[in-house]
Specification:
The protein has about 290 residues and is α+β, with helices and mostly antiparallel strands. It has a single domain (about 35-289), classed as 4-Layer Sandwich (Deoxyribonuclease I, Chain A). It is built from 5 helices and 14 strands. It has helices spanning about 45-50, 55-65, 155-170, 205-215, 225; strands at about 35-45, 70, 90-95, 105, 115, 130-135, 140-145, 175-180, 220, 235-240, 250, 255-260, 265-270, 285-289. The strands form 3 sheets. A 6-stranded mixed sheet has the order 3-4-2-1-14-13. A hairpin with a 4-residue loop joins strand 6 (about 130-135) and strand 7.
């Protein structure tokens, strides 16, 4: 599939970070005043490196011109990067382990509150979520744990998946949820180039796929498949080996999911596969809320 390239020059972003560990109700806004939001997500696989590439992370952010831009696998500790991006609030979550994991969200609106933990017995100190409450919805950025070679971390991964599913379900009781990020699973055979040879590998094991199905069954819609149910060759991650990206031998493991009750408000879902700088490319959602 040839996905649209990012377009539109934009204004850019600046810093803020609020934090709380308890989800709370927010003021109700006039639902008749709807607008279209542009949302983007990108696993940058090391933000410091992407800041130096051409185009740089800042240039990609400006070009996509999203209302909210989420990133995963920042691989940062607090204070290692000081971004001044006028027009955006910044929310960060760092892993305790150096040079590992990490998430961040850049939003034009100031969040009402931020949650950085899901009280999981595994991976909860790895900076894997940024959940931001806004007036009309919850926005949750996630970097799901990889099950590793020979599925060495599969049991922990499934524990995380169950906790994350419960976490989203709780937020969805308050207001609609939009969650995005690297979910580290290709859901169906259509979502990767070589399904037969990857059946027992991390990211396409039966257990991980079933777990992702449970997440959707809990009340969430895969926005890309909602808009493009039969499109093939649509991938968001490629190995650095074997010229995988050149040959489009990829996987679709980066998603935007929304609460089922707002799925009909989706106006677009794209994979921005012309954006380089990482082994992932950005994914984008437009939705009226």
């Amino acid at each position: 599939m040839s996905a649209p390239s990012p377009c539109n020059q934009s204004q850019t972003a600046l810093a803020h970070s609020a934090s709380t560990h308890n989800a709370a109700e927010a003021p109700v806004t006039d639902s008749s005043k709807t607008r279209e939001y542009t949302l983007a997500s990108w696993n940058v696989n090391g933000l410091r490196a992407v800041l130096k590439k051409d185009p740089s992370f800042i240039e990609v952010l400006e070009t996509i011109d999203a209302d909210i831009f989420a990133i995963q696998e920042t691989k940062l500790q607090e204070g290692q990067v000081d971004l001044e991006i006028p027009g955006y609030y910044q929310t960060w979550n760092y892993a305790e382990r150096k040079g590992y994991s990490g998430t961040a969200v850049f939003s034009r609106e100031e969040p009402l509150q931020v949650v950085r933990h899901i009280d999981s017995p595994v991976a909860d100190d790895e900076g894997r979520i940024c959940a931001l409450e806004f007036a009309k919805f919850w926005f949750v950025d996630v970097y799901t744990p990889n099950s590793k070679d020979q599925l060495a971390r599969l049991d922990e991964r499934l524990v995380w998946d169950a906790r994350y599913r419960d976490f989203l379900a709780g937020l969805s009781q308050q207001k609609p949820v939009i969650t995005c990020g690297d979910f580290n699973v290709a859901h169906h055979e259509i979502d990767l180039k070589n399904p037969s040879s990857n059946r027992k590998n991390a990211g396409f094991s039966d257990e991980e796929r079933e777990s992702f199905t449970k997440l959707l069954d809990a009340g969430f819609t895969d926005t890309f498949r909602y808009r493009h149910p039969d499109v093939t060759g649509a991938y968001s991650w490629w190995s650095y080996r074997f010229n995988a990206r050149k040959n489009n031998a990829g996987w679709r493991i980066d998603y935007f999911l929304v609460s089922d009750r707002i799925a009909e408000r989706i106006t677009g879902a794209s994979i921005l596969n012309e954006v380089y700088g990482s082994d992932h490319c950005p994914v984008e959602l437009t939705i009226e809320l």
